[in-house]
Amino acid sequence: MRTAKTVLAAVKLTHGCIKAVGNVRSGTNKTMEDEIHLHKHESDKLPGAKLSTMTQALAYKGIKEMKETATRKATNDNIQKIKEASKVNFSTTPKSSAIWKLIRRKDIGRNVKNFLWKTLHSAHRIGKYWEHIPECEDRVNCMHCAEVKSLEHILLVECALSHQKEIWELAKTLWAKMHQHWPELSMGSLMGCGLASFKDEKGEPLDRHERLYRILISESMHLIWKLRCECVIGCNGEPLIMHEVHNRWLKNINERLEEDMNLTNYLKFGRQHSLLPSVVIDTWKGTLLEEEKLPDDWLRVTGVLVGMAPMRSHRSLSPPVGRRGRNR
């Protein structure tokens, strides 16, 4: 039980010391050693933790284990939706622990992680959240469709304020440059986008396809949510113009591509946060603009974009006219 260094010594020649020396001499003449049990007794175990080895993360983990976390029905329902969607699309049923780990992947941005975490807990302040709040009952239903404004309504139902149809078509178009199979979209498949699994003809996993799918689905989900909030809060319920939605999505994906390229700088971001150059190249291979003209290692080349052109408004179709009526 003593943790400090312990030294035993014979202070003076006593009867007990003489007997101990005799035991030592007789022990040297044994042909087989005695079996000595050095295990601590249960009553000798000290409770608590060593302050010398304690960390904040370890203390937080211990506090969470001591507390009983109450399960929420909405959370359990969402976990079940993810399992069912994964079984339908990818023929696998993931564990609940794997589902919670998916939102901690490095492929998913911080803001998108927060959005997914709230989505799994049904913690967004929309729809039925406002039912029992005085003078806020009108926020329950969508101002455009008059249906309950749930997250499924925002992400999947063809509502003009969400622009989800246009955004999912853009994501599907870019995805078709690499893979022909586009999984069926549902709330379970959207929340469990990190569990997507794609394989080639030999049954080998396609890691780069899985990573691109996670990026496209998570970024598109978050953009649909942001555009919906802008339309309802900033535009008084007026939907955005088609070319604005197209260009916002394209800008979002190009920024995500640029972020991946920057994260390959090992000296700047370190081992924990940097990405392997091969991972980024394999992820975006086949989706870049004029990729045949790019070098093999295009990570340090400026102006690399995905292979989709921005959409111009009707006003910008004709070139600007100069002061004297001639085109500049």
From TrEMBL:
Protein name: Reverse transcriptase zinc-binding domain-containing protein
Biological source species: Mycena rosella
Phylogenetic classification of the source organism: Eukaryota, Fungi, Dikarya, Basidiomycota, Agaricomycotina
